[in-house]
Specification:
Shape: globular
Largest sheet: 9 strands, antiparallel
Helix content: 25-40%
Oligomer: single chain
Radius of gyration: 22 Å
Length: 383
């Protein structure tokens, strides 16, 4: 197995302290938003044999296993991250596989450079993802029922929001959510800025379930995404709880530290709460306009002590092992590739000692035995 040297992304929304604190190093003073573990070409992990991209390209079946290569091709299908939100992330959705292939092909035909700021589709893959909280973690996930969203907006007492309240009460669910989100995102910017300012003052005054949106508004004053966010469920995860985010589900992370895993893609469509490119028509094409419970996941215990976060896709499988003091070694050997990440304590993985934030890549079929006292997350695939 290979110890991984991983890149930390300094996105502006990142916490300056959460990842350094986990790693046991001094903060740099700059935001540290994400630590990437995997073989994404944008920031592949480094090993003693080269980057993980180079290692896999040199011998795909040896590193990934025959079944994984047959199912997903000669690439690592997932990307594992530590994510530390010190400020809200953009309000966004991800495409499904068909939409990603079509969008990527269209932008290739139009000759949009892959690194262009206004490009939506960086690759032809979908991006289902799972976030598991290491600390208390706040986010927005999926649409509220229209009547509940209407009540939340109506309580603000802002006259310019009344048409949205009426639409949410009057229309069937899908039509109501579509019409209101479209109206919010295409409204006159100056008029919307005034509406957001009035809504912010009301959220500050009311507190309670309006408090998360007041926080958004202070980070992004005048942004229509503040009002759009009020259509979504607010979720507060406790450590060990998780959210699965499938295609077309609008979401945003607000604060906290977590382990995130996703299909190996960077396709994001944004509609607000960001200085990055916003493409409202494309986002509206991809969003799934149906409400529902966010569906907080808790790990399901297996007989060998593994705790699995069940999801409906095969590109990744996330689980964890909590190793108590004095426990026997656990054999984690699989016929699929793995990344093992320590998040607490001190754990021995093969010949490597892992402390919080340290990780290893385990090729398919490679002996993987862990021991010690701490917590290890395991990322692999279902093949």
């Amino acid at each position: 197995m290979d110890r991984l040297d991983n890149t930390i992304r300094p996105y502006a929304w990142g916490s300056p302290t959460a990842i350094p604190h986990l790693l046991g190093v001094d903060p740099t003073g700059e935001p540290q938003a994400e630590m990437w573990m995997g073989a994404h070409p944008g920031a592949p992990s480094r090993t003693g044999r080269g980057t993980l991209v180079e290692v896999i390209e040199a011998a795909p079946e040896r590193e990934l296993g025959q079944k994984a290569v047959a199912k997903f091709g000669p690439r690592l299908p997932f990307l594992l991250k530590l994510l530390a939100a010190g400020a809200p992330l953009s309000l966004q959705v991800h495409p499904d596989l068909t939409q990603a292939k079509e969008g990527y092909a269209d932008e290739e035909r139009r000759g949009i450079p892959i690194d262009a700021p206004h490009r939506n589709y960086k690759d032809a893959n979908h991006k289902p993802e799972l976030i598991c909280a290491l600390t208390e973690f706040d986010g927005l996930c999926g649409f509220r029922p229209p009547a509940r969203a209407a009540d939340l907006l109506d309580a603000l007492g802002v006259d310019s929001l009344k048409p949205y309240v009426d639409l949410l009460h009057a229309q069937p669910e899908e039509a109501a959510l579509r019409e209101v989100l479209t109206a919010i995102l295409t409204a006159d910017p100056d008029e919307m800025a005034d509406t957001v300012a009035a809504a912010t003052a009301a959220c500050d005054r009311l507190g309670g379930e309006h408090a998360p949106y007041a926080g958004l508004a202070h980070h992004y004053p005048g942004d229509p995404g503040v009002i759009a966010a009020m259509l979504l469920n607010h979720v507060r995860l406790q450590p060990g709880e998780a959210l699965f985010l499938g295609a077309g589900i609008p979401h945003a992370y607000l604060s906290g530290l977590g382990v995130e895993i996703m299909a190996n893609s960077d396709n994001v469509l944004r509609c607000g709460l960001t200085p990055k490119h916003v493409d409202v028509p494309e986002l509206l094409r991809v969003v799934r306009f149906r409400s529902g419970d966010p569906g907080v996941l808790r790990p399901e215990a297996a007989p060998d002590g593994e705790e699995v976060y069940e999801t409906p896709i095969d590109e990744f499988r996330l689980s964890r092992h909590v190793l108590p003091e004095g426990a026997p070694a656990h054999d984690l050997t699989l016929t699929t590739p793995q990344i093992l990440l320590c998040t607490a304590g001190t754990v021995r993985a093969g010949e490597h000692t892992l402390t919080p934030g340290r990780s290893v890549f385990v090729p398919a079929g490679e002996k993987a035995e862990v021991s010690g006292t701490g917590t290890v997350f395991r990322a692999t695939v279902i093949a």
